């Protein structure tokens, strides 16, 4: 969609807020509150059933992206066997466990990042913030394997403490990671 067709970006400051439906009481049905009745009006349009075995993959992708949200984005820094530093966003990412801390990042078959992660040098996952979302987005290009996204992103490399790939200095939250199961990674790529 061309940017002139989009609404201007407005930054949202973090704030604790009241519940969107503060009148709700334990056990009360959704149609017994004003907000709930408005929500249920959408049911009159009916349900659409999607069969993923017959749907076009691109349509399934956009359906899932719009339905499963908000979702975190893993901004992964890794290094190839030949020393090329890679920086790429992955929107299929989440926490699996907190102790020990385990995350999952889903990479498409053949993506440089998965090859780099399997190499054993570790990787970093950096959480993206609004002020540099465009820089992170610029790293989602389909670039040749010997291309490093770091210089074109304008982001700052900061040495990691435990893994070889650098973390993103601008990230308010970065994790230095190691692959926990090479067998699982091998079956997916």
Fold blueprint:
Layout: H1 34-40, H2 57-67, E1 74-79, E2 85-90, E3 93-98, E4 101-105, H3 112-118, E5 123-127, H4 133-137, H5 150-153, E6 157-158, E7 167-168, E8 174-177, H6 182-187
Antiparallel strand pairs: 1-2, 1-5, 3-4, 5-8, 6-7
Distance N to C terminus? 32 Å
Number of strands: 8
The overall pLDDT average reads 85
| SSE ordering | HHEEEEHEHHEEEH
Strand order of the largest sheet: 2-1-5-8
Shape: globular
Radius of gyration: 21 Å
Helix count, DSSP H or I runs of 4 or more residues: 6
Low-confidence stretches: none
Main sheet characteristics: 4 strands, antiparallel
Query: Could you tell me the strand content as a percent range?
Result: 15-25%
Helix percentage range = 10-25%
Structural class: alpha+beta
Jot down its keywords.
four-stranded antiparallel β-sheet; single chain; two-stranded antiparallel ribbon; 189 residues; alpha+beta
Could you explain how this protein is built, in words?
The chain is an alpha+beta fold and 189 residues long. It is 21% helix and 19% strand. It has six helices and eight strands. It has helices spanning 34-40, 57-67, 112-118, 133-137, 150-153, 182-187, and strands at residues 74-79, 85-90, 93-98, 101-105, 123-127, 157-158, 167-168, 174-177. The strands form three sheets. Strands 2-1-5-8 form a four-stranded antiparallel β-sheet, with helices on one face. The chain has a two-stranded antiparallel sheet with strand order 3-4. 17% of the residues are buried. Keywords: Flavoprotein, FMN. It holds the Pfam family Flavin_Reduct. This is Flavin reductase like domain-containing protein.
